[in-house]
């Protein structure tokens, strides 16, 4: 009992310290979503994401998106994404992302790989909104978060610890999309 209490107090002090050291006046807002990956499109999706286009990364960064991560569960073909928002005007920043012509071009290559759970009409790259209740990536509810938030975000890209996943070792850029399907 004593050890558990001491560990709990130490964890609380670490989190309190992280909050006090943070350069941000408040915690980032976290977002998560889920979508199905068409198994036959795994190669294309990893080719796109082993090196996300520089222009897409810049737009995300300029729109206050940080720590964007996508996970894949092979047995169910589900992808889960998580990211953090550090800005003050989410709607304006997300409108800038959605209105960016290079991001929309990027989406035309990602969308054929994905199966949203509930979506009617044209995909987002073509201006579609999914109809009532439609979401391309289904939003997820945060039920737990252990720990503090980052005190700084790296601006180094690509992440030096990321291991590419494309089985063919291929990547794409906004000017090199040969062999990729798109809308």
Average pLDDT rating: 85
Ends: how far apart? 59 Å
**Radius of gyration, in angstroms, nearest whole number:** 19 Å
Proportion of beta-strand residues: 15-25%
Question: How would you sum up the global shape?
Answer: globular
Low-confidence spans: 1-22
Main sheet attributes: strand count, strand direction, barrel closure? 5 strands, antiparallel
Helix fraction, binned, reads 25-40%
Helix/strand/pairing class, anyone? Answer: alpha+beta
- What string gives the helices and strands in order? HEHHEEHHEE
Work out the helix count.
Answer: 5
Strand element count: 5
Region (Disordered): 160-183
GO molecular function: racemase and epimerase activity, acting on carbohydrates and derivatives
Protein name: L-rhamnose mutarotase
InterPro entries: Dimeric_a/b-barrel, Rham/fucose_mutarotase
């Amino acid at each position: 009992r004593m050890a558990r209490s001491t560990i709990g107090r130490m964890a609380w002090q670490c989190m309190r310290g992280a909050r006090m050291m943070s350069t941000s006046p408040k915690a980032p807002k976290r977002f998560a979503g889920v979508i199905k990956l068409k198994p036959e499109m795994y190669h294309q999706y990893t080719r796109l994401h082993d090196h996300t286009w520089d222009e897409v990364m810049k737009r995300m960064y300029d729109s206050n998106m940080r720590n964007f991560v996508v996970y894949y569960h092979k047995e169910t073909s589900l992808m889960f994404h998580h990211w953090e928002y550090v800005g003050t005007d989410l709607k304006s920043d997300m409108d800038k992302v959605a209105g960016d012509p290079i991001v929309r071009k990027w989406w035309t290559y990602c969308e054929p790989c994905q199966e949203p759970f509930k979506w009617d009409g044209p995909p987002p790259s073509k201006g579609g909104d999914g109809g009532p209740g439609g979401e391309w990536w289904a939003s997820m509810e945060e039920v737990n978060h252990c720990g503090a938030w980052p005190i700084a975000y790296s601006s180094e890209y690509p992440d030096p610890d990321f291991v590419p996943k494309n089985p063919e070792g291929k990547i794409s850029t906004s000017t090199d999309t040969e062999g990729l399907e798109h809308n």
